[in-house]
Amino acid sequence: MKIFKISLVVLIFVYLYLPMAVLVTNSFNKSKYGHEWKGFSTKWYEKLWDNDALMQAFSNSLTIAVLAATLATVLGTLIAQGLYRYRFPLKKLSSGMLFVLMLSPDIVLAITFLVIFIAIGIQLGFWSLLISHITFCLPFVVITVYAQLKDFDRNILEAAQDLGATEWQTFYKIMLPTLFPAILSGWLLSFTLSLDDVIISSFVTGPGFEILPVRVFSMVKVGVSPEVNALATILLAISLILVALITLILKRKRLA
Amino acid sequence: MPGLRTVNFRRVVILLTLGWLGIFVLLPHLLVVLTSILTPDADHLAVWPLTLDAYKRVFEPIYAEVFWHSITLSLTTTIICLLIGYPFAYYVARLKPVWRALLLFLMIIPFWTNSLIRTYAIKALLGKKGLFNEIIMGLGLSDAPLQLLYSDFAVIFGLVYILFPFMVLPLISSFDKLDNSLLEAGHDLGANAFMRFWHIVLPLTMPGVVAGCLIVFLPAMGMFYVADLLGGAKSLLLGNVIKNQFLVVRDWPFGSAFSVILIVLMALMLWIYFLSNRYVQRQGGLDDENL
To answer: Transmembrane ranges (chain B) (predicted)?
Structure first.
């Protein structure tokens, strides 16, 4: 029974990591077709560096990811505050919308975004990408921040009020420092989500502003291109670092 | 920020919440429902009058077939994820904290790694000259490379690969909530392992099962890039159909109708999720007043 358990766990991790291991190995392989090891080489990384279209898409993706994560974090933190501290009309509907946003399959969200951008006349490209990325990251920030708010001592808010603090002062002198770990991990989550999204981006993208997933999608559809292996390895490294950061932040928060 | 101080914080927060969620979440969803009952138009995408034609077309044989095929692929994916994920989550949840944290960490890395890139990685495994074929031929199981790519098998393999963590994470958290004393009580009362599983473990972890199935089954149908990269001409997912209607054929009402069906399916599964949650809380001794 124990052998069965261990082999199940091991097999699952082999399944999860084998394809990525093959990618990383191929990215350092001299051979173009990757099924044969022809020696170590970093030429695909050099080719990637020289591939202007791909690098441009990469930097566009980073721009969108940083902006979307930052704005989603600001907006999400404020929304979490609102849901925690205030009663207001349509509050239930608002949290319902966040719920819908989190659970809707990407394809459904993609269509809703496309439809609203066409309806209100926002040109597809930078702005449509930014707005939709902010929106699909929102619920993750709200949930992370709200989870930490729940442990917050409401008496502190009352004390601040009694001592004459304005709402803004309460927010940036008390709330922000307390919530900092949650806000930071919300930002990191949003950053990764934005960098990863394929489905929504391919609907709301325009010809003038190409981001990585859309570019990679059209590349890999045509055929195998070893630069993609190099790119994949870099992205893998980025997410590894980010996940490690999030884990550390959340762990420290729990210890504190 | 002197300017900000004069503005009421509360009002700003509430306005931002209602404004953003209203304009970019509620309104668009309503517009999609509206679009689905409009008439398709080449120049304006969708125009009056209202019609149910799009929904009728969903049930035309060609589309009904694609629709069912897509449901079959997603359902198979969900069942495979559940069958492997359930025992896996059970073992992981009962490990020592250090090991548990490590395995969870290893689980989350692929979860946060670009899924398009991971789909592409599978091509390197399943291709004619890929690792799998080399192993199969190396072992002498086949003389010629097998056609693994561009098939239903490849699509399911890819979907399970991408979505497995989505199944496991809610399962693990529902195993975490499982109260061990209930199992001990069952044991004391003479229930054997199967009875304890059937009457205690399974019902109490049902919310995790339903949540896992919900976030595997529906997204699976939408992942058009998995079918595009790994599936053949026949292994389409609903996502491919929707994407084509929107971006290629430009029949927006028809594409919207499909996505409304997805929304309805989601609502249905959420309803089941709430029912199972309520059932578990009632079994756990909470009364309805607390819900």
So the answer is: 12-38, 66-89, 101-121, 153-172, 204-227, 254-274
CATH number at residue B187: 1.10.3720.10
Percent of chain A with pLDDT over 90: 22
How deeply is A256 buried, as exposed, middle or buried, from its count of CB atoms within 10 A (0-12, 13-18, 19+)? exposed
Residue A242 lies in a domain: yes
pLDDT in tens, B183-207: 788 878 877 777 777 877 778 888 8
Residue B242 placed within a domain:
yes
ipTM confidence: 0.85
**What is the C-alpha to C-alpha distance for residues A249 and B133, in angstroms, rounded to an integer?**
43
Rounded to an integer, what distance in angstroms lies between the CA atom of residue A139 and that of residue A197? 15
Contact call for A17 and B252, based on CB within 8 A: no
Which of 191-250 (B) contact A at CB < 8 A?
214-215, 218-219, 221-225, 228-229, 238-239, 242-243, 246-247
The pTM of the full predicted model, rounded to 2 decimals, is: 0.87
- Is position A181 within any domain? yes
Of the listed ranges B41-50, B112-121, B122-131, the one predicted with least confidence: B41-50
Closest in A35, A108, A239 to B134, CB measured: A35
DSSP classification of residue A32: S
Domain coverage including residue B154: 60-282
- B157 and chain A in contact, CB less than 8 A: no
For residue B222, list chain A residues with Cβ-Cβ distance below 8 A.
Answer: 105-108, 199
Bridge partners (DSSP) listed for residue B39: B47
Core vs surface per residue A10-28: b (16+ CB within 10 A) or e: eebeebbebbbebbbebbb
Q: How far apart are CA A170 and CA A176, in angstroms?
A: 9
Domain that holds residue A182: 2-27+38-255
Q: Is pLDDT of B113 > 70?
A: yes
Residue B155, amino acid: V
Q: Which residue in A has a C-alpha nearest to residue B23's C-alpha?
A: A116
Relative to beta strand B45-47, strand B39-41 is antiparallel
Distance (Å, rounded) from C-alpha A141 to C-alpha A78? 10
The answer as to whether B77 is a domain residue is yes
**Count of the separate structural domains present in chain A:** 1
